[in-house]
Write a structure and sequence with these properties.
By secondary structure, the chain is of the alpha/beta class. It is built from 6 helices and 8 strands; from the N terminus they run αβββααβαβαββαβ. The two termini are 28 Å apart.
């Protein structure tokens, strides 16, 4: 059972099953069957986003360059905060996963969210598992409104309460994009839709 049959590493997962797929249910089909919460997707852009300084290597942005472009850009963060205030029903009660471009970027975003009164924590691959677990409990309980992460919550985490997903990094992978979107699609009685920026 997989949510990502098209893998970014190019491995064909059906090779272990005689090339057969027993059953397949794609995102749009699951939405039509009411198995997932519908989402409101806001694709917003800014002329202040300039990735020309980030090198492109082997089909992806250089992680350090991307972190440099995104970190400390107050113009972009002001714009992000305005968009959150504009499209999220109540930013002070949202339960958001925010996907950042790098560790420094995640810390910067969490700092700016906190300064705006949106209680947030930044997590990355070096964050201890007990700290990650506490952040998830805090998000579920409403102690914090956002977890800003770098590559650790794309998959393998189940937080049905997430009602907002904010993608603050470009991705060249359709699989990663769907994984990030999927973090908020679980149904709960308290959530009628997912907000995606």
């Amino acid at each position: 059972l997989t949510a990502t049959p098209e893998r970014p590493d190019g491995i064909d997962v059906t090779q272990w099953f005689g090339g057969r797929i027993a059953s397949e249910l794609r995102l749009w089909d699951a939405l039509e069957r009411n198995l997932l919460v519908p989402f409101h997707y806001f694709a917003v852009g800014s002329e202040d986003l300039d990735f020309s300084r980030a090198r492109w290597n082997a089909g992806r942005y250089n992680a350090d360059d991307l972190d440099e472009v995104l970190t400390g850009n107050d113009v972009i963060m002001n714009w992000v905060l305005r968009e959150i205030a504009h499209v999220v029903t109540d930013p002070l009660t949202m339960k958001a996963l925010v996907f950042a471009g790098g560790v420094r970027h995640a810390r910067f975003v969490a700092l700016r969210l906190n300064q705006a009164g949106i209680h947030s924590v930044a997590l990355d691959g070096e964050t201890a598992k007990p700290v990650r677990a506490q952040a998830i409990r805090d998000l579920r309980a409403g102690v914090i409104q956002a977890i800003v992460s770098v590559d650790i919550f794309n998959e393998g985490v189940d937080i049905p309460e997430v009602d907002t997903v904010v993608m603050l990094r470009p991705t060249e992978s359709g699989t990663v994009f769907l994984q990030q979107l999927g973090r908020g699609l679980r149904k709960t009685s308290a959530k009628s839709f997912l907000t995606v920026l």
